[in-house]
User: Which sequence fits this backbone?
């Protein structure tokens, strides 16, 4: 067969050698047939469809200009044409972007005359934004003041917070034309920076531009805007804060001496002024905004020492009287003028009656008596009565002013509270024992503020009951694993004073999980509220299991305890219970060192509780033997049919013992 094929091939090759034109034509014909077949049948079909063109994320008739194709160049042009612009980078599939979309539309409706709002789709793969920006999360909000930026907004995606931040970027400096405006600015701001510039020689001095940029740098570093910047152009007003030279910057501090920017050591640049302010500022009250349930920002602050957390409803666009009260207490707490906490400078005080239906006395104390008459004019007692607590501090470095109302005691009023106070306010102690307390105690507190609307879930985990508009205040000591809750009838000053003493009379607050108890349940679920009533019942023996949901070994014991509870079902002398220590705080004397743990609390001898041995397997026979061994009576004596219950219990015990021994013998034979 092979020889025949070889012979035929030789004949074909001989004929092709005689006729080369025929050979070339055959080869071309074969290639012409193979090439179309290869191109049509061998090509793989595309399995990935092209992405559809994106649609508009914002409505066309809205106040937000939507660049849904990722036109980054057009966004740059619009940003340069506006004085203040907000650029919103989004991804259409992002749920957080959908939430922020509604918030941005609300803010744009109110600020469209002042601010340019632009939205850019930064997820479209053909857009320039996707190619140039490397964002790890969405949405991203950038603000631009003229050509300065970007200033990233990192606060809560709420309309009030976002609008407040945009307004601060729009007006980074506050103009103070009079001494009264200067006094009000330094009084109401926790941290104030004042710059003095003369506009006689130039419409915009170089130092003023640097000072303006330093305010924008501060907003970039601190989105909460705790440091406020103001400008003074009148020399008489500037002398109130000891500024006499042009292009001077003054940092006002409530507790320590105020400072003037050292132009001899540093150049007056925007970055230098911003760094100098943040290096020397003093923070009495800190705002923290934990992001999510497992935020490390709160834990980092609690690691620094005992902390006083105040949860209050906060609107950054309006004044908050509750915030002023807590700030006033924090200022007096940190005011250490001498070893005993009282200022060593002699003060001149005067008591004045406030006009109005409520009889109260307003006490004014200053360092120098010559300024007392001036301060009385600023109080304006004739126009409005004294508030419950109102702290004010003069911008002059020589005096310190504090005005407080001391109401007359009314029969039947709550001790430590002020009658006629604002609803929802914090009770204030009449005696001033908190001034300078920081220097007289080792338990130094740090004051923190949280928005109750945003973080009410955290407040409930710490013991808050109802969201009625009242502030929720608690002290957390992470080192001792304790926290205390301020009652509505107690004053904040007394609460801090009781925590600061050596032997604190405060009681540790126990947070428990509210759970509906099933009436037919064999195992009673114990919480923080029902723990003492259940375990310390002197008429019953209590077998208690300590467990947690994250404990894998605890879940394996459920069927064991269920079988044990069935043995004692209907028994009136023994209670089988369990407590989830991961969600219920217990008194220290009832805590255990590891999970799972079983404790028996005998009746009439609760102080002689017994712990199940750790080296003994938790089986039904072992637990039953443990109960019978440490009870002074048979558990079935209290039931109606004692003999029948005892015989059934004994038979069940023997059956379990035979089953255990049989399984052990089977394992030995298999090995």
Assistant:
């Amino acid at each position: 067969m092979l020889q025949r094929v070889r012979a035929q091939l030789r004949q074909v090759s001989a004929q092709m050698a005689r006729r080369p034109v025929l050979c070339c034509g055959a080869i071309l014909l074969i290639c012409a047939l193979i090439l179309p077949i290869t191109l049509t049948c061998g090509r793989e079909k595309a399995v990935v469809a092209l992405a559809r063109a994106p649609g508009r994320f914002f409505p066309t008739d809205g106040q937000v200009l939507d660049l849904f194709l990722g036109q980054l160049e057009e966004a740059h042009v619009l940003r340069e044409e506006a004085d203040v612009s907000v650029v919103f980078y989004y991804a259409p599939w992002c749920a957080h972007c959908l939430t922020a979309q509604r918030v941005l539309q609300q803010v744009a409706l109110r600020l469209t005359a002042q601010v340019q709002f632009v939205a850019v789709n930064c997820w479209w793969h053909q857009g320039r934004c996707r190619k140039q920006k490397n964002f790890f999360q969405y949405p991203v909000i950038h603000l631009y003041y003229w050509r300065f930026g970007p200033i990233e907004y990192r606060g809560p995606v709420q309309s009030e917070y976002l609008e407040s931040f945009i307004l601060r970027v729009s007006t980074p400096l506050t103009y103070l034309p009079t001494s009264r405006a200067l006094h009000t600015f330094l009084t109401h701001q926790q941290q104030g920076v004042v710059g003095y510039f003369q506009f006689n020689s130039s419409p915009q001095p170089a130092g003023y531009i640097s000072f303006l940029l330093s305010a924008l740098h501060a907003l970039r570093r601190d989105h909460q805007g705790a440091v406020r910047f103001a400008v003074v152009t009148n020399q008489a007003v500037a002398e109130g804060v000891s500024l006499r030279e042009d292009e001077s910057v003054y940092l006002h501090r409530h507790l320590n001496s105020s400072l003037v920017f050292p132009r001899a050591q540093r150049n007056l640049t925007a970055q230098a002024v911003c760094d100098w302010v943040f290096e020397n500022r003093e923070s009495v009250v800190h705002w923290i905004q934990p992001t999510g349930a497992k935020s490390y920002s709160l834990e980092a602050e609690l690691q620094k020492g005992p902390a006083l957390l105040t949860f209050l409803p906060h609107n950054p666009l309006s004044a908050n009287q509750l915030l002023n009260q807590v700030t006033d207490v924090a200022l007096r707490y940190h005011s250490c003028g001498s070893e005993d906490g009282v200022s060593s400078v002699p003060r001149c005080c005067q008591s004045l009656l406030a006009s109005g239906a409520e009889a109260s006395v307003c006490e004014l104390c200053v360092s120098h008596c010559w300024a007392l008459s001036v301060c009385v004019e600023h109080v304006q007692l004739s126009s409005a009565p004294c508030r419950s607590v109102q702290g004010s501090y003069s911008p002059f470095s020589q005096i310190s002013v504090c005005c407080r109302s001391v109401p007359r005691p009314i029969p039947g009023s709550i001790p430590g509270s002020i009658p006629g106070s604002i609803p929802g306010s914090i009770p204030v102690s009449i005696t001033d024992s908190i001034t300078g307390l920081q220097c007289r105690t080792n338990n130094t507190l740090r004051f923190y503020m949280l928005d109750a609307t945003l973080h009410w879930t955290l407040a409930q985990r710490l013991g808050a009951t109802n969201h009625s508009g009242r502030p929720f205040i608690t002290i957390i000591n992470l080192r001792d694993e304790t926290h205390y809750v301020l009652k509505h009838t107690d004053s904040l000053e007394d609460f801090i004073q009781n925590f600061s003493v050596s032997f604190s009379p405060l009681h540790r607050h126990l947070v428990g999980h509210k759970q509906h108890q099933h009436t037919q349940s064999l195992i009673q679920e114990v919480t923080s509220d029902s723990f003492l009533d259940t375990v310390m019942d002197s008429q019953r023996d209590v077998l208690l299991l300590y467990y947690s949901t994250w404990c894998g070994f605890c879940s394996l014991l459920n069927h064991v305890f269920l079988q044990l509870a069935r043995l004692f079902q209907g028994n009136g002398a023994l209670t089988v219970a369990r407590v989830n220590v991961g969600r219920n705080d217990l008194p220290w004397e009832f805590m255990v060192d590891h999970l799972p743990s079983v404790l028996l609390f005998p009746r009439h001898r609760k102080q002689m509780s017994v712990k199940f041995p750790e080296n003994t397997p938790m089986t039904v026979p072992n637990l039953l033997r443990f109960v019978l061994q440490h009870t002074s009576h048979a558990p079935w004596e209290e039931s109606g049919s004692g003999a029948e219950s005892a015989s059934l219990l004994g038979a069940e015990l023997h059956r379990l013992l035979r089953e255990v021994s049989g399984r052990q013998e089977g394992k030995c034979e298999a090995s």
In short: DSSP finds 20 helices and 24 strands in the chain. The first strand starts at residue 65 and ends at 67. The CA atoms of residues 59 and 66 lie 8 Å apart.
